[in-house]
Write a structure and sequence with these properties.
This is Heparan-alpha-glucosaminide N-acetyltransferase catalytic domain-containing protein. InterPro entries: HGSNAT_cat. The chain contains 16 helices and 4 strands. The chain is an all-alpha fold. Among the domains are: 254 residues, no CATH class; 68 residues, no CATH class. The strands form 2 sheets. It has a two-stranded antiparallel sheet with strand order 1-4. Strands 2-3 form a two-stranded antiparallel sheet.
Length: 484
């Protein structure tokens, strides 16, 4: 799911979403590198790979079909949060605003380029040994494009408001907020634009052509009836309407998470064929990283910048943690209150304000925990794998999360493209787990409640699966020789 290299320190030409340069991960004394930044980034990348690879079989960790917040729904906000922290540290000193803007613009363009290349549909790895995309149906938005927008806006605010910041904060509980008031003005403006558009836009009826070849409606025109304003349901929300009008429906994501909702599938939360009586919108595209939702996502980066400012202005561990934890708890409380009072539901697809608060609050608490363990208690060795991932996040993202490495190995096959190391291992593991935990809604509970049974049968089950697999392969080989 994301790019992980975003911006560079003014004195070093390295990208910081992937790996913070030394000067931007130091505190004000310049002596101690904040290892928790790299580890938080590495944890987010590892989490992204986990939910991407296992989310189809374990829907409890995949994206929520619509309302709600599962494990996968924390990945994008965590990236935006750490980008914000990095921006504050990278631009703590700006000697030349023009040069700083050039670097921001260049890195934004790089993010957009890699986003279109990796998520626009050009690479079909690892599912197919092919590349290329029909430009009439190329996906314009994506994770990297969202990061690019958030980075561009927040970095420019940081650069052009640098002169208004005081090196030493005035006394008072909210002095840190007063010193960076322009950031909160921008954040408030973003929120007003988002809410006004979300609730004030009239959504008319709309049509689309089904391009899913596995659908019984392939090639047919479907009509979705709306004619409403202020709705947050899948077919008639303003987020989708703006994307259809600006991007064009053919340039949106064609496999939205809502297909796993109860209205669309027989087995809710699992990636199964759509119901025959599913409403027409279940077959429609939807862009989870669209224009309006990406505008709302800027708030996640602004909150991250605030945490970076605390690092710059407060040197004591206890003071930093007090600010971070109190802010995180306040955000969590606000977001959960909005959700459970039904004022605004948690919704990653729409990137609602309640979702922004909950995920940013969670990011704040996770970051505070890592900071306490790594930079305060100095328990760094136990997190070395995550630190390495965080410092090489772009490489891990491209090779792992985008399937490039798996696609490379799939390119070397024995007689048939499906007979590869990757697919063979995957099928055997799926075969084993299908026999054990694939009953909808019960798999997760079985594993948690019956570890002894699962692990006790693991060796025997795996051996039987491998033996059967080789037996079937031998039969297929013999049949091909006879036919030849």
């Amino acid at each position: 799911m994301s790019e992980i290299k975003v911006v560079a320190d003014m004195s070093h030409d390295q990208s910081l979403l992937v790996h913070e340069e030394a000067s931007s991960t130091q505190n004000l004394t310049g002596k101690t590198r904040l290892a928790s930044l790299d580890i938080f980034r590495g944890l987010t990348v590892a989490l992204m790979i986990l939910v991407d690879d296992a989310g189809g079989d374990w829907p409890v960790i995949a994206h929520a079909p619509w309302e709600g917040c599962n494990l996968a729904d924390f990945v994008m906000p965590f990236f935006l949060f750490i980008v914000g922290v990095s921006i504050a540290l990278s631009f703590k000193r700006v000697s030349n605003k023009f040069d700083a803007c050039k670097k921001v613009g260049f890195r934004t363009c790089k993010l957009l380029f890699w986003g279109l290349l990796l998520q626009g549909g050009f690479s079909h790895a690892p599912d197919e040994l092919a590349y290329g995309v029909d430009v009439t149906r190329m996906r314009f938005c994506g994770i990297l494009q969202r990061i690019a927008l958030s980075y561009l806006v927040v970095a420019l605010v940081e650069i052009f408001t640098k002169d208004s910041h005081e090196e030493t904060l005035t006394t008072g509980r909210f002095s840190i907020f007063k010193s960076y008031y322009w950031h909160w003005i921008v954040g408030g403006s973003v929120l007003v634009i988002y809410l006004a558009t979300l609730y004030g836009t009239y959504v008319p009826d709309w049509e689309f052509v089904v391009y899913d070849k596995d659908s019984i409606l392939y090639g047919k025109v479907q009509t979705v009836s709306c004619g409403v304003r202020g709705k947050l349901n899948p077919p008639c929300n303003a987020v989708g309407y703006v994307d259809r009008q600006v991007l064009g429906i053919n340039h949106m994501y064609h496999h939205p998470a809502w297909r796993r909702s109860k209205a669309c599938t027989e087995y809710s939360s699992y990636e199964r064929p759509l119901r025959q009586d599913a409403p027409s919108w279940c077959h429609a595209p939807f862009e989870p990283e669209g224009i309006l939702s990406s505008i709302s996502a800027i708030l996640s980066t602004i909150i991250g910048v605030h945490f970076g400012h605390i690092i710059l202005h407060f040197k004591e561990h206890a003071t930093r943690l007090k600010h971070w934890i109190s802010t995180g708890l306040a955000l969590l409380s606000l977001g959960l209150t909005l959700h459970f009072t039904h004022l605004m539901p948690l919704n990653k697809q729409l990137y609602t304000f309640s979702y922004t608060c909950v995920t940013s609050g969670a990011a704040a608490l996770v970051f505070s925990s890592l900071y306490s363990l790594v930079d305060v208690l100095e328990w760094k060795h136990m997190f070395l794998p995550l630190k390495w991932i965080g410092m090489n996040a772009m490489l891990v993202y491209v090779l792992g999360a985008e399937g490039i490495l798996a696609g490379f190995f799939n390119g070397w096959y024995y007689r048939h493209p499906s007979n590869t190391l990757v697919w063979g291992s995957n099928l055997r593991l799926r075969s084993f787990y299908t026999r054990r935990v694939s009953i909808p809604g019960e798999g997760e509970w079985r594993i948690m409640q019956d570890w002894r049974t699962l692990t006790g049968d693991l060796q025997h089950g795996a051996r039987r699966t491998v033996r059967n697999g080789f037996h079937r392969a031998a039969q297929d080989d013999a049949a091909r020789r006879e036919s030849a």
